[in-house]
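Okay, any thoughts on this one?
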Amino acid sequence: MQDPGYQQKQKDIAGEGMANTPEEFSKQIDAAIARYTAVAKRANIKID
């Protein structure tokens, strides 16, 4: 992720790398699941 070529490619596609620990990543995933679960419930989206 420190390679300048890689960093430029990420900027070109509007992405930004983020270094974190497995625990921090797990918290991010848990937060995303909670957020999108709430969105799906409000929109009455169900999985068949």
